Amino acid sequence: MTALALLAGAVIACTAPTVHDGDTLRCGQDRIRLFGVDAPEVRRGSAAAEPLAYEARDLLAKLTRGRVGCRVVAQDRYGRSVARCWSSASPDINAAMIRSGLTTEWRAYSKGAYAAAQDEARAAGRGFWAPGAPARRAR
């Protein structure tokens, strides 16, 4: 991890980051976790993927094509920069992911910063809020 990314308020910028899942990406050497976003887990080893995990991952990849910027707000226990991100496709990638219904707000950390985005997804019946959609674990 770069020294710049360790500083809260630092901006990490890159072009076409690598996307791991619906809430994690890599800009060069910097691993970034989207602030306030909880995505379903993709398959790891023998653990099956959670419902909508690959749809969430694919949406994040779409939203991060081209130039991406992320403002670091913290560092998590895994050494990732926790950040609010934007791109040419979205002025607020974190909110867009939650608004899609493919991820949910992680209120323990966001303290309701994305409540309106999640309410919009719920009202529109998107992703986890769609009729008959799989249940999402609460965070």
How would you describe what is shown here?
The chain is an alpha+beta fold. Helices cover 26% and strands 27% of the residues. It contains five helices and eight strands. It has a six-stranded mixed beta sheet with strand order 1-6-7-4-3-2. A two-stranded antiparallel ribbon has the order 5-8. Strand 2 and strand 3 form a beta hairpin. Helix 3 (93-99) runs parallel beside helix 5 (115-124). The radius of gyration is 14 Å and the shape is globular.
Determine the mean pLDDT: 91
User: Which percent range describes the beta-strand content?
Assistant: 25-35%
Terminal-residue CA separation: 27 Å
Give the strand order, joined by hyphens, for the main sheet. Answer: 1-6-7-4-3-2
Order of helices and strands: HEEEEEHEEHEHH
Count every helix, treating DSSP H or I runs of 4 or more residues as helices. 5
Helix content: 25-40%
Low-confidence stretches: none
Q: Please provide the count of β strands.
A: 8
Shape: globular
Biggest beta-sheet profile: 6 strands, mixed
Which secondary-structure class do the elements indicate?
Answer: alpha+beta
Task: Please tell me how large the radius of gyration is.
Answer: 14 Å
